[in-house]
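Researcher: Please predict.
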Amino acid sequence: MSKRTIPRKISFLPDVTYFRPAHMGMAVLEEVELRHDEVEAIRLKHLDRLDQEAAARHMGVSQPTFHRLLSSAHEKLAEAVIKGKALRIEGGNVTVQDGFQAASCGGARDCGRRPRRLAKTDAAGGVKDKGSPIIAVASVDGSFEGAVGQRFGRCKKLVVYNSENGSFEVMDNQKNMGTAQGAGIQTAQAVIDLGANAVISGHFGPQAFEALHSAGIDVYSVSDINVDEALRRLQQGELDRLCGPDVDAHW
């Protein structure tokens, strides 16, 4: 039986999670996967310039474990750069600790923007037409007057609103509410399948955020308002986009 790995503490998730060589087709491109704990090791060592003891303490690991993370990250970066491979940042047994640096971007780093218009593709992969901005809102009861759900993965309903023509539908999410684990990822996949451009909820954990972020979906956090008010504020550009999860896993 393999030894269970203790989650590594991180305080950063990058906005950009994919890098590839220019002028190389995706069909022939090989990838290297850099885990989030390896990215954190690089950040602490080379950007924050912490010594190994302090960096290991920050991540909640031993010094030998931190050294292995850093060495693995260096090897993967070297392989990607020297061999011309794409670099994908994902995975890793991590937990986001208090003081997460990129959870909400304000001030000089302006992340607030309105939902993007997604392009719909045909069976051959060509662009058919531009899609409408679709906004999915976690809801306690599926109504516009009801409160925005505070736990994205375990919200009871999702209000799916088309901001161009005003149409909407209500999706039942109760099957994910009672699941033992993976509720955030499953709810995120449902939102992705709906073709949403933006999601509003009270809070987002690391796995749900990463799934939505990787799919190019903008994520917004609000509290103590109803669905109608949340939609109004988003469409008027009054909400800041989250650049990372704002709660720990299993919150």
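Model: Residues 98-131 have pLDDT under 50 and may be disordered.
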